[in-house]
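User: Modeling request: complex.
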Amino acid sequence: MKINKFLSIMCFEWCIVVERNNKSKYEILVDLAKRRGIFWPAYEIYGGVAGFYDFGPVGLSIKNNIINEWRYHLIHSVDVNVLEIETPIITPRIVLKASGHEDHFTDPITECKSCGRVYRADHLIEEAINKKVEGLSMEELWKIIHEHNIRCPECGGELTKPKPALLLFKTEIGPYKGTKAYLRPETAQGMFINFKNLLNIARNKLPLGIAQIGRVGRNEISPRQGLLRLREFTIMELEFFFDPEKSYEEVMNILEKRKELRNERLNILTAKDKLEGKEETQTYTTIELIEENIVTNPWMAYWMAIGNKFLREIGIPINKIRFVEKLPEEKAHYSEQTFDQEVFTEKYGWFEVAGYSYRTTYDLRRHIEYSKADLTFFKRYEKPKKVKKKKIAPNPAKIKEIAGEKFPSVMKALSEMDKEHLLSELENNGYVIIQDVKIPESPFYVKEEEVLVHGEKIIPHVVEPSFGLERILYVVLENSLHITSDQKIVLKLPYRVAPYMVAVFPLVTGTKPEHVKMINLAKKIKEILISNRITVYYDEEGSIGKRYVRADEIGIPLAITVDYQSIEDNTVTIRYRDTREQKRIHIGEIIKEILSHFK
Amino acid sequence: MKINKFLSIMCFEWCIVVERNNKSKYEILVDLAKRRGIFWPAYEIYGGVAGFYDFGPVGLSIKNNIINEWRYHLIHSVDVNVLEIETPIITPRIVLKASGHEDHFTDPITECKSCGRVYRADHLIEEAINKKVEGLSMEELWKIIHEHNIRCPECGGELTKPKPALLLFKTEIGPYKGTKAYLRPETAQGMFINFKNLLNIARNKLPLGIAQIGRVGRNEISPRQGLLRLREFTIMELEFFFDPEKSYEEVMNILEKRKELRNERLNILTAKDKLEGKEETQTYTTIELIEENIVTNPWMAYWMAIGNKFLREIGIPINKIRFVEKLPEEKAHYSEQTFDQEVFTEKYGWFEVAGYSYRTTYDLRRHIEYSKADLTFFKRYEKPKKVKKKKIAPNPAKIKEIAGEKFPSVMKALSEMDKEHLLSELENNGYVIIQDVKIPESPFYVKEEEVLVHGEKIIPHVVEPSFGLERILYVVLENSLHITSDQKIVLKLPYRVAPYMVAVFPLVTGTKPEHVKMINLAKKIKEILISNRITVYYDEEGSIGKRYVRADEIGIPLAITVDYQSIEDNTVTIRYRDTREQKRIHIGEIIKEILSHFK
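Assistant: Request completed. Predicted assembly structure:
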């Protein structure tokens, strides 16, 4: 690179420019992100802590806009009822015991006997022998370590037998003699345990979606992929509750009305194809996913189509989106079928940004078991059904003969006893023991009656789309990054995702009367826009060219410039980021012009 | 209450209505909140955990709207540069050691020797002897417990001597052999440790505000005030960095331009007045707070005025807002002056919803000390100053004579040594010890030079306004709660805070052709509004009267009804929550009409 060296001596600005040609998008973004307030590693002044990031004003604004788009695409504009809630991060142990996380949410670790460093065993093996080992048992991993004589990559020391490490952040509720708790690793459980509350609020109707956006903690062993593998991050999740007997009909009714969603094209790599060694995706429409049984429940196809559309609309090209089905050993403990939604990144290749899991009745069932609460849905029959039902009543005189002085307490216990249980005890054993008194069938009257049953309690099934916000932020940034022919950065973010809607500049700043007028007019415009809830980036430093560059770098789609003509005739120029075109409009038209681009 | 009993037999609906008369606003709200999805205690199916709440779709939407109003009033529309950031909740121990929280963020606890229950000692004493004891030492509290023979309120057992309990939630980063960490008790520290990053992004200009909105954890001993004292909650904070030498001039310049802010009226109870036993507030304008030295820095007055306006605009009447200065023993360890902003509540009386602290240089100074990072601001002089400066250089030949074979390492150490430090060592002691070699003054050349100094490094001062979101949610709800003359609930929320902008109803629902048309038109209107990013509450269940009641109960300000006339001439009625008036408008005008109320 002789030319570069030569140029770098000549001109500092050029030197930055030419270097850009040699940098990956990742490197350009990481540099831009720190310099312009998008993101950077947290706790830098204390040496940093892996897995934690800070977000600056630009990054946070883009994040919040992605959240709003997610709300629009997955809550407000869907064809079903979705209610968004917010539940705590700190979670009592029982909840994550019931959900299975305390037992299953682990990764295998191995420790160097010599230097004490701790590694994620499966990753270490994968790096050493270049083979996927996800889902193998501790014994199997240990065997591989032995066979291949895998050692500490830092000091060459011997490794210990892998053991599971719990990835939940532990804490205690109460500052003294507290009770055990964890930080939630997903927002989902807050929705499952509130299912009945939300069902009431939704006036007992299925299907019902419950959504939540919020922080979660996953105590990763040694996260090394920057923004793409964090220990604390934001998740956008939706638990969709439905009656599986009705799901085909319900989804077909929706797709009948929404042709564009029915024909949404998704790139799919099935578990079957993976097992056959295929790596290429097949394209299916939503309806094909259902009709060809690629998905095990039609609602999976519905939400995958919605998620596909969502990513497309925030700027990810369709050829960089794919859905990969997980193999049985790769799935989480609660899932019957899982598709990862992946986006192609320059640095890491295909990378998971969302997951779609068919959690069936798993979570509700577990919480019913652990809490004894009724988390069922009363499914009303179209017509009440006539059902034969046995009724049972004791004959007190005969009971008294058998129970003797225990008669009052035995009668009390009998009256409080579940009648179904009493019947089945008598039927199975021929007697029942109450207060240590053995009572045969004879002292009971049993009669069969026909009763009308209006419905039955069912545990709804659940499909869950779940999105990692920071990963989406990264792929949106990478896909919006453009380097112009004159080597400038332009973030061509979709308008709705851009950190500010518009930039406002006075053309020249100074103390001459016309310049003061320019500044005052520009500030007035800024104030009016802000009071109309339009987000504004105001900048009066340096040449107008440099200010356009600064606005382009963080993806501001529109720029209003107040110039000499403005203070004469109340017109301004508006510049469009993507075309660099400018046109002159009257001040009274600014708001309308801006808003027309955010429809 | 004979009449009530009589009525309750007659009619279930009436019975609810009449009961409302006897209920406090708090009770009405708590009932409404659970029933309509505003908030409810978390983890109910597992018996609940004190200090944690869930928020339903209505509560969450109101919360998010309050956040947006806060952003508008404290970030976007202020007269200074404020940048919002987002930093992690999980915080390495060193950060909260440096901030002083690990040492000072405690409450005194006492334990019952007989039943083992744990209490907050100061609260227990306050309840027992009805006297404020905040800020007293453990010894002093112990003395009072003894003197008044205060015992366990549950079992009458003896109490232990009070000891401090740390209110930080503890955790560890890394699932195995992790490092100690806490959940942040405030978002502030994430802003302090990022001061230099944000100063760079703001191109090195003061004053500079850094804002953050996010979850925090405070491991309270036994929180008992529902939504008003949570262990996990959302804070909206702003750290405002400035040069104290310029603050008077800067604030006066702003108030010169913003007369309405200059004349904002604040109800104040000063520490001085409190000490004199006064309980009534005095009203001051912003400028009076500064000119009469009620605040120790003018920026305190600026932010208090902004915060006063913010609360007024989200529906708190001015006579229910006051600022109470904390006494020296009540202030946090970092604060030179603190005002609590309190709102009057029916249930708890005056209750703190925000605090304004003059944190001076405390936090930056501590982080400089602990991290050794440079968190200063380079304050450029208007003109460079000529300063006499001593320069020092060693005479190698003489050093060699003294250091002997240690000469190379001594010279290296000398070259790396801070020259100011070297000079002061020699000046104070007459010698310096390098690598165990004692070197007198003689082997050094010292000369005095005149140099131009362009500025100096200063540690900016900080004023912090900090708001508790859930408390604000509660006071907004309480103040918006109205019971109509016909005993119905109407939440008269300010439009911008309302959970949905508009309700849409088909007048009659059924299967007749005209009813199907009505439903289809209503759904079409809903879809168009949603695609225009207007939040819609759609409801087709029950009579139109009941649906208006349901919309009023959660404070939806506008309701569009599609009726028989609509399907003939494309007009609809729009109903206004606060007046119950209705008017007929054309479908094409709906969006404009709605938006005109959200200006």
